[in-house]
Amino acid sequence: MWLLAALMTTISFGLSNTIFKWSTVHGMSKVSIQFFFYSIAFLLTLGYGVVTQALHPNLISIFLGALIGILNANGNIQMSRAFEKGPASLTSPLIAANAIFPVLAAGLIFHEHISLIQWIGILCMMGSAMVIQYTPGSKGNINYVPWIVRIMLAVLSFGILGILMKTSSYLHITPLDMLVAMYGGGSIYLAVWFRKEKAQLREVKIGTFVALSSVVGFSCYFYALRTGMASIVFPVVSLNCLVVVLAGCYMFKERLRMYQVFGILSALLGLILTKI
């Protein structure tokens, strides 16, 4: 069940990233959409917790959840800025490498036993995530120092985020408490950036849809980390780029390159090896 939950997270995140890609093509602000989806997701999870009386926050859950929300929002913003400073062909694969941090933490800090075959499967999936996103020949002027700084900030944000999510499951903090704090913290952080934006009604609508997708995705994510092996969950979730690539073929008439096909096959092989 936990692997199925991780795959659901992969699909959810891939769908959200596809929507972000579509919205950028149509001239919408990623910051505005993020602000609306965080705010709406916060109201949804808070309302559900109050109605069901399932919300029992404490200082640790509030701190961890808010920090995760801020890191996720900041990672997305830094990634967008990195795309503006350098080529997408290098930016996406480099940022995708952030999964190595929570994977190593699962083994070194949380003492998960990872067999050699599972390590091979994990490396296959992580390598696939980087290969699938590689786009040779993409144009872009490199403003080197700002580009590297943005990439480092994005990698650290996403990498630390994964470790903190595993920490919350290790401390047996309920997913609902984490979700409310996460969306609340992210909303406050994004409000600072949102002041510079001019909101559009369609951004509110897109943000609402992404909020629903995000709540489902992160709920499955926390469940997978609580009940499964984090060292496998993180690489599986990193394959959300596969969903974006396949959706791009349908929505934007993009063509799969041969190396991307090999990347997809490698990802499937990795999934199989992690279950042996």
Describe the protein in words:
With 276 residues, this protein is mainly alpha-helical. The chain has one domain. The protein is 80% helix and 0% strand. The model has no long low-confidence stretch (mean pLDDT 86).
What does the secondary structure layout of this molecule look like, with pairings?
Blueprint lengths: L1 H24 L4 H23 L6 H27 L2 H9 L3 H9 L7 H18 L10 H27 L4 H20 L6 H27 L2 H9 L1 H12 L6 H17 L2
Helix pairs in contact: 1-9, 1-10, 1-11, 2-8, 2-9, 3-7, 3-8, 4-6, 4-7, 5-7, 5-10, 6-10, 6-12, 7-9
Please state the CA-atom Rg, rounded to the nearest Å.
18 Å
Number of strand segments: 0
Q: Let me know the average pLDDT.
A: 86
Biggest sheet features: none
SSE topology string: HHHHHHHHHHHH
Number of helices: 12
Unreliable segments of 5+ consecutive residues: none
Which word captures the global form?
globular
Q: Report helical residue fraction.
A: over 70%
Question: Based on helices, strands and strand pairing, what is the structural class?
Answer: mainly alpha
Number of domains as seen in the coordinates = 1
Beta strand %: under 5%
State the separation between the terminal residues, measured CA to CA: 16 Å
InterPro entries: AA-Vitamin_Transporters, EamA_dom, EmrE-like
Membrane topology: Multi-pass membrane protein
Keywords: Membrane, Transmembrane, Transmembrane helix
Subcellular location: Endomembrane system
Compact description:
The chain has helices at 2-25, 30-52, 59-85, 88-96, 100-108, 116-133, 144-170, 175-194, 201-227, 230-238, 240-251, 258-274. It is mostly helical and 276 residues long.
